[in-house]
């Protein structure tokens, strides 16, 4: 069954260009020009991946609002910002809202397709039948790879896909330090140090919302991060 990619982009020529590229690579594509149009469609049926511009028609930050609305519907849905806005502040803002990746439009179509294909391949690898029994238990943490689901003290963490992969990479080998590049590789994203830090902060907040004393993700200054057993 074809993966469904939703493209939310207010420039028709750019939207059509991306849509044609994804279709050539075997994806089913739905396109939307406004936040309102997209959110109405998403309420009826979520895609397998959403590619969103930040500025949408009369809404300079409509993409950010759409990301927020999408995250209230699904924690796991992969969301990628693809925008001309290349400031670090915008990138960090998008990731704080729960986007999995933030790409700029100077990225080649070939590179974009490769990133999306690798993302889906990683999801398929984690959820295939041979991995169905791969449940990681680390004290109060339970990670179910087949369902891309994680709980702390039996309460769902509501991790995004990128956050799930980062926690999975850390908890799989407790005590081992993972540098930022290793975490980027695990999450299938290409980010700078500041955005990896943003993901870690957001992950910690989700644990602390359940357990205020949570401190199992330890910062190893100048090295990276590690999962510390209680």
TrEMBL record:
It holds the Pfam family Response_reg. The keyword Nucleotide-binding does not apply. Residues 4-120 form the Response regulatory domain. Residues 133-229 bind DNA. It comes from the Bacteria. InterPro entries: CheY-like_superfamily, OmpR/PhoB-type_DNA-bd, Response_regulator, Sig_transdc_resp-reg_C-effctor, Sig_transdc_resp-reg_receiver, WalR-like, WH-like_DNA-bd_sf. Keywords: DNA-binding, Phosphoprotein, Transcription, Transcription regulation, Two-component regulatory system. Residues 133-229 form the OmpR/PhoB-type domain. The keyword Acetylation does not apply. The modification 4-aspartylphosphate is found at residue 53. Gene3D superfamilies: 3.40.50.2300, 6.10.250.690, Winged helix-like DNA-binding domain superfamily/Winged helix DNA-binding domain. This is Proteobacterial dedicated sortase system response regulator. It comes from Steroidobacter gossypii.
């Amino acid at each position: 069954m074809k993966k469904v990619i939703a493209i939310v982009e207010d420039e028709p020529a750019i939207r059509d260009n991306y849509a044609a590229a994804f279709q050539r690579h075997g994806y089913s594509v739905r396109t939307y020009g406004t936040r309102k149009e997209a959110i109405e469609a998403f309420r009826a049926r979520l895609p397998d991946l959403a590619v969103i511009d930040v500025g949408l028609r009369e809404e300079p930050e409509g993409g950010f609002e759409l990301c927020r609305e999408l995250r209230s519907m699904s924690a796991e849905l992969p969301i990628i910002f693809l925008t001309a806005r290349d400031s670090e502040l915008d990138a960090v803002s998008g990731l704080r809202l729960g986007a999995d990746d933030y790409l700029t439009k100077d990225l080649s179509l070939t590179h974009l397709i490769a990133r999306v294909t690798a993302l889906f391949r990683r999801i398929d690898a984690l959820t295939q039948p041979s991995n169905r029994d791969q449940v990681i238990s680390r004290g109060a943490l339970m990670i179910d790879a087949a369902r891309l689901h994680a709980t702390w003290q039996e309460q769902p963490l509501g991790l995004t896909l990128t956050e799930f992969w980062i926690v999975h990479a850390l908890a799989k080998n407790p005590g081992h330090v993972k540098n930022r590049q290793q975490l980027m590789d695990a999450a299938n994203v290409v980010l700078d140090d500041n955005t990896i830090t943003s993901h870690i902060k957001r992950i910690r907040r989700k644990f602390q919302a359940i357990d205020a004393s949570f401190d199992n993700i330890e910062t190893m200054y100048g090295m990276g991060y590690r999962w510390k057993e209680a």
